[in-house]
Fold this protein.
Amino acid sequence: MLVVLEPHAENAGRLRPLSDAGVPTGPPVATADLAGAVAEYERSARPRWLWAATGEVYPELLARGVRVERCHDLGHVEALLLAYQGRHREPRGFAAAVARLRGLPVPEDVGPRRKSAQPTLFEPERERLPGDADPLEAAVEVYAAQRRTAAGVAHAGGLRLLAAAESASALAAAEMTHFGLPWREEVHLALLEETLGPRTAPGVRPRRLAVLADEIAAAFGRPVNPDHPPGIVRAFAREGIDVPSARAWVLKDVDHPAVAPLLAYKELARLWVAHGWSWLDEWVADGRFRPDYVVGGVVSGRWATRGGAALQIPRALRTAVRADPGWKLVAADASQLEPRVLAVLSGDHRLAAVSGEDDLYTTLAADAFDGKRDRAKIAMLSAMYGGTSGEAGPLLAVLRKRFPDAVGYVEAAALAGEQGRMVRSRLGRTSPPPSESWHEATGSTDDSEDAERRGRRVSREWGRFTRNFVVQASAADWTAALLGALRRRLHLVSPESHLVFFQHDEVLVHCPAEAAAAVCHEVTEAGHEATTLVFGPTPVHFPLKAEAVDTYADAK
DNA sequence: ACAGACCGCGCC
DNA sequence: AAAGGGCGCGGTCTGT
């Protein structure tokens, strides 16, 4: 069964039960204790909850101690369906869906609201429905329309699964923010002091950075702002050294006394600016880092985050991520997910055979690259990213000869992009159509050499995007299914355990120490479940190694 | 004062 | 001959 839910302020709201097909089976019921009503339904019927946006409803339920098993997130599903139809640029979200159905002016998407760990005094604004539509009725209508749309396309089965997996991902994201990533402030503070010096006021360079800035100035014989790349390039030019940019990898081969302090400065400044004391103040509270995840925030279906740079936690800081006393972190990482995804998508039997081992690149190297793992990896990444620089070209040729189906698959995707066609993931995530300016550049009637060259370049760029899209988006299909399977399994074997972090192809579970072995087992099983759900029976191996650690720094 | 471009670097 | 996918975020500079 389904229950459609509409929240009001202060835990009040309305509910209405529906059949699986979305037909109301009873009248709307108002309640002053929404969380209690939801909890009761969970106990008695385990319905699939139907609501406009998980992010608007579920955090409040979690705050009141209520977990739900399943939902259908109308906003996320709307976005997936619009994309499937090539309508990426139309406003997504529930309110827009209602407006489209009723022929009313479609409201623009509300812009992103940056959040922080600090509690806010104001309730987040809820979408106003156009034409004063009744939210419960409108949700039922939109659900029916989404079912019709999804059923009428070639990827019907895939989209149904994708809708469920994306909705489950939204639940998992809200739970990760709610429970938070265990973050030991004193460990982080000690690391900052050790590498930067004592804490300074915001904007005031810590001692170690000030010293390096002085060394840089001394090496150049005049003050040079190390935070200003053009100034650095000019400073080297005055010394008779031409550098194309001030990037670290460019400077590291330059022979000049300013290089060493500059490289050290860049590294430390990055830590200070991105994950220094201000970051701690803003993002860590009560021993938890609570980033705001944006499920499906990337066109490929990958997650993004808003604020806190949660998907860029530097390796050096992972030592601050520690399990509570008596608890463990179970770290799980899908190794080499994308080449394995390519093996399934392309049906390349040879590549499937190579994926049988835990380290795909080693096997690939033994198979085709004289045992040279580096080369095997470059070849594979070049195939998936469209890289051709340096030695990539010849290596890719070797790969193509040995694995024609796999390389042919990504090359077909690249060709589609170069021609402005869309490509899709396994479950039906769909690449956006190229922009107006892309069409102008590639369809130009101007046959000057410059215009033609630009057209070719723009076309190739889009081909690299679609080449990567098929792999990256199908990997996102798999991870969405994984999250759904894992959160359900965790609740069964160890209800106290929670997903607390997710980053493209790795997850962290915070669990009581005595549950760690069981959690590791469930992670592995969830990986198998995701593989079968998304890809069906396949010889391709998707190893998802799980290990219990005390700190994230010890993972892998 | 503010928005937006560009650079550079962190993560996958 | 050269050509590499996806992000978020903070810095400086430029234009208004």
Notes: The CA atoms of residues 2 and 469 of chain A lie 34 Å apart. Residues 112-125 of chain A have pLDDT under 50 and may be disordered. Residues 228-230, 245-248, 266-267, 270-271, 274-275, 302, 309-315, 337-338, 472, 503-506 of chain A lie near DNA strand B (CB under 10 Å from a C1').
